[in-house]
Structure formats: C-alpha cells, structure tokens
Task: structure prediction
Amino acid sequence: MKGSSCVRFLQWALPRMGMRWRGYRKVRRQVCRKLQRRVAELDLSGMEAYRRYLEENPGEWPVLDGMCRITISRFCRDRRVFEALGGTVLPSLAHAPNSDGALRVWSAGCASGEEPYTISILWERTLARRFPGLGLQIVATDVGDTMLQRARTARYEAGTLKELPRAWVEEAFELTTDDSGVENFVLEPRYRRRVVFIREDIRERMPPGPFHLVLCRNLLFTYFDEEVQVRLLHKILGRMAPGGYLVLGSHEGLPRGEWPLERIPESRCVFAARKES
Result:
C-alpha cells in the first residue's frame, strides 16, 4: 500500500467519523499498517477498493474506527506535566476542603495504564505522607479491551519506564523474567489498588464524577474535530468538581470559545476551573 493512497484515504474518511487529519499526520503509519492488514483480509486491491467497500457496507465503519485508535503510552509521559501535578495541582487539591476524604481523578484514554499508575506512584512517593487522612481514587477509561487487559495485568517492558525516576522504578516494580528470557516490570499491588479500569468510549459515555482532576491528554483535543471537542468538553466540565483541574496534552489546546478555565503558570497544558464567585 503506497503511503500517498493511504493519506488520501484518511483525508477522506476521518472527517466522516468526526476526526481530523491534522491529528493523525505524525502517527499515520500506525493506522496505515492496520489498514494494509484489513485490505488484505478482505482481499481488496487497495485503498480505493476499500473506500468503495465502506460505501457499500456501512457496518465496516466501526471496524475502521477501531483501526484509528492510537496506542502510544509510557510512564511519566511529558515529565513537566507530572512535575506540575506533584508540585502544585495535587497539593492544592489536598489542602482544599474535601467532604468525602478522597481526591477523585479521571484518566481518559488511559491505554495500558501508564498514566493512572504514574499518578498513583506520584501520590504514594511524594504526597501520601503529607496528607495521611486523604485518599486517592483513580478512574481510568479506555475504549480498547486489549489495552485495558494489559493495564489490569500491570506488566511492562523497560522502555515504557525510562522517564520514571530510577528510585521510583526500584520501589514500585518487581523485576520478573518470562519463559523466553524477556524481562518485565510488574507494578506492586499497593499502587494498583487505587485504580479502577472501565471500558468506555468517551464519545458515548463518561464516568459520572465529580472529579477533582481530569487528565484528557492526546485524545479528544488531538484526534477529533472541533465540533466533537466542544460537545465533549461541555460534558467533561460538568463532571469536574468546583476548583478542579483539567490536563491536556503538551501540544494541545482548548477549542475556540469561552471556557471557565484558566491555564496555571506552572504548565501550558494544565487548566484550573474558575471558582464561582
């Protein structure tokens, strides 16, 4: 499959699914490899034939939607974000009045669990002792069953841990070796207990909240068009607790419009919800 034919196909298909080509330019090869396999499975001649197949078989669109899911994840991805969370955001939330004695976090598009587990490790290593009477509850959602199964297993290769401080890796993970001699790092149970994984498509359903911290990074504001962004951002805001925080990806921004959010000085992608006066 030639790259140009796949690009033309994506530029045609993505807008029809509420997605935008701009978000896929750098990761198009991941999607094109999946498309190549699907075209071969259907015994089609190429992308133009697959386009005709889609037009004649509406049931194929959900299959295509599944192939457009991007799975790039690692622990402490964009360390500056987690430095802002540990240095400013979580302490600020911990000091604020909290009626139920727990901070509630939602990790949207959690993939294989690296993001919510990073939050759990961060809390345990740097904040739990400072706030002994306060718990942390993390809801992590993703649309992919396979990714969620990996997340629940909490078994990772060394490469996905490279941005975590070495001391954190040594404290939080057990090094194991499988039958083929491959080393894996298994997260200790005490870090896993705080995280609940749920299969949800953010476009169709969200956990009810309220959440003090919402991480929606490299998902809604990268891959979906502005109409979808606006619609879902309203729903996300409705699930945020007063004075809560919203975290975007480091290269993402809010859609056009007036939003009750203010960027915090410590990070260009972390926003505080404006408190009602």
User: Anything to note?
Assistant: Residues 79-273 form a domain with the Rossmann fold fold (CATH 3.40.50.150). Residues 79-95 form the longest helix (17 residues). The two ends are 57 Å apart (CA to CA).
